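Hi there, hope your week has been kind to you so far. No rush at all, and the record is pasted right below.
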Amino acid sequence: MQREMKTSSTHHQINKHRSFIIILKYFFISLFLSLPLFLFLLSLQPNHRTTTTTTTTVSGDLLRIRPGYSSYENYIQRQLNKTLNPKLRQIWTTRDWERKIKVFSQFFDQLKRQNLLSNDSKALCIGARVGQEVEALRRIGVSDSVGIDLVPYPPLVVKGDFHNQPFRNGTFDFEFSNVFDHALFPEKFVAEIERTLRPGGVCALHVSISKRADKYSANDLYSSEPLVKLFKGSDLVHLKKIDGFGLDTEVVFRKREN
């Protein structure tokens, strides 16, 4: 009788051990299978990583990311502090309105004379605030024009983050921006321009080189070289000095056809 009880107890322990091994086996299998899903989900969150680097990887010391942003949300809030500033919005929509439209119109007229922009172009202005550049395009005949900014200003400006434009691939013939210095991720800023430009489309940027931009800027550019390198799918059309509301250089690219 004791032998039978002993044998039964041994079988019970063996069965418990086998059950534990089976459970452990399935645990490691499920963990292994879930790892790719975890990595995939992690890759979908590029805009919310903590910012610790002070220099972008493609530029050396010629394009520096400003420190001080603990998260992407922190960066966005700082940009909104400028965009929603009631005093600035009052200036943008009154005293600066016609003055800026006049200057933007002159820039865009020159691009039309160089056949880089036409009345048939579908145009986007990036970081357009209250849309003076959009209004300028419309006044010179480029009627299919719109702007994006974190804060919309209908009907000229719709809501959008220039690190993740809310448009399909190849939507626009022409894109313009004078807020490159506000990009926390310059590579993403440029990649979104090239994504939403059609093949053969033109991008014109007004930037400040070799001098510090305003306090809300997220990067400082010390040469045109890193900017040219960022446009991996485009060719440089021209680079020239300008006087554009504190910005001193116009850089124009054309997206390659292939």
Notes: Confidence is low (pLDDT under 50) at residues 1-12, 31-58.
